């Protein structure tokens, strides 16, 4: 049984329409229609849909296990939240945008806007086994395309506070937060690099390095399709 078949079966057994389901998860009916027709093969809303339909999200996403919904305590999964659906990990999404955004990268609760549930299998495959230092922020702008796009969710390891090898970093600058690749030049300057070739690299002289701070390293990105 495919995802579209499982979703339709669960929705019909729950006795609600596509329109009602979409409204209860904060999406358009077309998003549910695309899943049930097979036009979309996956969704970032599976955990929320499963909760509305009272089914196990692992079953809904993969077909593995029982259809009936089950709960476990997230402490058994080494997560950074209080409760989680079985087979899913909770991550904090922070109220900041980075790439062309502004504002401090604040990991405190005041900047937390919501909890996002992510498949445990996906998290362990793409992030690893240590989730406690992972927070989610939203990419803004196209300077890192095609690596990730405007509006994508970025999983950031906030324990990384210095340049730690190749990769993409969240950097707090006097002009706001940016998400870029960085290189240290032979004379100690910092080279800021965009993946979008339409953007030229920037150089921060070594004498100005105290004005910028690394807030974390991007370990994964999640693309969101808006329908």
Question: Would you mind describing this structure in some detail?
Answer:
It is a single chain. Strands 4-3-5-6-11-7-8-9-10 form a nine-stranded mixed sheet. It has helices at residues 3-14, 18-25, 29-37, 46-53, 57-62, 120-126; strands spanning 71-73, 83-85, 88-98, 112-119, 134-139, 153-157, 168-173, 176-184, 190-193, 202-204, 213-222. The longest helix has 12 residues, at 3-14. By secondary structure, it is of the alpha+beta class. It folds into two domains: 3-69, lambda repressor-like DNA-binding domains (434 Repressor (Amino-terminal Domain)); 73-222, Umud Fragment, subunit A (Ribbon). The two termini are 25 Å apart. The protein is elongated, with a radius of gyration of 20 Å. The model is unreliable at 70-82, 99-104 and 106-110 (pLDDT under 50).
Question: Rg from C-alpha positions?
Answer: 20 Å
Q: CATH topology of the largest domain, anyone?
A: Umud Fragment, subunit A
- What's the CATH architecture name of the largest domain? Ribbon
Overall average pLDDT: 79
Q: What structural class is derived from the secondary structure elements?
A: alpha+beta
Ends: how far apart?
A: 25 Å
Low-pLDDT sequence parts: 70-82, 99-104, 106-110
Shape: elongated
Main sheet makeup:
9 strands, mixed
């Amino acid at each position: 049984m495919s995802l579209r078949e499982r979703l339709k079966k669960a929705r019909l057994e729950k006795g609600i329409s596509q329109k009602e389901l979409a409204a209860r998860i904060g999406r358009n009916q077309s998003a549910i229609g695309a899943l049930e027709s097979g036009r979309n093969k996956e969704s970032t809303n599976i955990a929320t849909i499963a909760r509305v339909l009272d089914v196990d999200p692992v079953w809904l996403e993969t077909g593995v296990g029982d259809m009936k919904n089950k709960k476990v305590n997230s402490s058994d999964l080494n997560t950074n939240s209080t409760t989680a659906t079985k087979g899913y990990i909770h991550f904090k999404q922070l109220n900041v945008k980075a790439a062309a955004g502004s504002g401090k990268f604040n990991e405190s609760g005041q900047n937390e806007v919501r909890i996002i549930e992510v498949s445990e299998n996906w998290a362990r495959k793409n992030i690893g086994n240590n989730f406690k230092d992972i927070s989610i922020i939203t990419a803004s702008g196209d300077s890192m395309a095609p690596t990730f796009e405007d509006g994508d969710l970025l999983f950031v390891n906030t324990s990384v506070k210095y340049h730690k090898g190749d990769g993409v970093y969240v950097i707090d600058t006097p002009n706001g937060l940016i998400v870029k690749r960085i290189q240290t030049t032979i004379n100690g300057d910092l080279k800021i690099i965009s993946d979008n070739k339409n953007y030229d690299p920037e150089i921060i002289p070594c004498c100005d390095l105290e004005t910028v701070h690394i807030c974390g390293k991007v370990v994964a990105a999640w693309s969101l399709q808006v329908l």
